[in-house]
Write a structure and sequence with these properties.
The protein is about 40% helix and about 5% strand. The chain is mainly alpha-helical. α4 packs antiparallel against α5. The strands form two sheets. Strands 1-2 form a two-stranded antiparallel sheet. It has two domains: about 55 residues, no CATH class; about 140 residues, Orthogonal Bundle (Cytochrome Bc1 Complex, Chain D, domain 2), CATH 1.10.760.10.
Length: about 280
């Protein structure tokens, strides 16, 4: 086999391998909603079930709704979905106080003076100022810890993962976690932060993160045709009702929204696979 033949053989093998990668990637692609087209080229919005859709008269495809219009359209869609599914169980997120009252009593804290976990978000959280992260407004794991370390004689965690931490450490961790949850609250309510091209945000169909059930993931999701994690469904909704681009798994917005959704179900037992 001469040099040219070897080169061609190697090139063919490379192309074959790349083709296999492309096929594998394509097989993992999520299905897409196909909404009924409007005869008048009006905007058509649909829910994440892939079936419930509504034509927005007077608004052309490619145009953006006002916040009020988007809220009105999503409410109409939800009313239609409920009408078509009268027996469906829609679980409004319980108030954290009610959830915690039902939760088993946690073991006593070795540091009773310090918080062991951050408080749950309020039952009806106020939307933080658009475009501004709450992490800028308070202590976080970086700024708080460095500030504490500068204080002489402060009882600060010195590199040990378990055990060697103080009440002040716990307060910083709790504040940092709560700030992260509140950032997720902001994104969840902000169509622009979600990259929506139609002004729809997650809270319009899921007020207060209602009926998101983070405690039931992983589970088989019919819309996706496979077992999904919570972030998969967040992206599904971003791509379809919200009409935005999916977020990477490590995107700060994705991580913050997951934190917010989980915080709303604090105290609810894990029950993966439940529908």
């Amino acid at each position: 086999m001469n040099h040219r033949t070897k080169l061609l053989t190697g090139l063919c093998a490379l192309l074959s391998a790349l083709s296999g990668v492309a096929l594998a990637t394509g097989s993992d692609a999520l299905p897409q909603h196909t909404l009924p087209p409007s005869k008048n080229r009006n905007l058509v919005l649909g829910l994440c079930d892939g079936e419930t859709a509504l034509e927005v008269k007077g608004v052309k495809e490619g145009e953006k709704l006002s916040h009020g219009q988007a809220l009105d359209v999503t409410q109409q869609l939800m009313r239609e979905w409920r009408r078509k599914n009268p027996d469906a169980r829609w679980d409004d997120t319980p108030a954290p106080s009610a959830v915690l009252a039902q939760a088993p009593t946690p073991p006593p804290s070795p540091h009773p003076q310090g918080p062991r976990s951050p408080p749950a978000v309020p039952p009806t959280p106020q939307k933080p100022s658009a475009g501004k992260s709450n992490r800028e407004n308070g202590p976080n794991a970086s700024s708080g810890a460095s500030g504490m370390a500068a204080q002489k004689g402060a009882d600060v965690q010195a590199g040990h993962t378990y055990g060697a931490f103080s009440e002040r450490d716990e307060q910083i961790w709790a504040a940092s976690t709560q700030a992260f949850v509140e950032e997720g609250n902001r994104v969840f309510h902000d169509a622009d932060a979600l990259g929506s091209t139609v002004a729809v945000s997650c809270d319009m169909c899921h007020p207060d993160a209602a009926n998101t059930h983070p405690e039931t993931y992983p589970k088989y999701q019919v819309q996706l045709g496979r077992v999904a994690m919570l972030r998969d469904m967040i992206n599904w909704c971003i791509e379809n009702p919200v009409r935005g681009k999916p977020l990477a798994d490590n995107d700060p917005k994705m991580r913050a929204m997951e934190a917010f959704i989980y915080a709303k179900r604090k105290g609810v037992p894990l029950e993966f696979g439940k529908h």
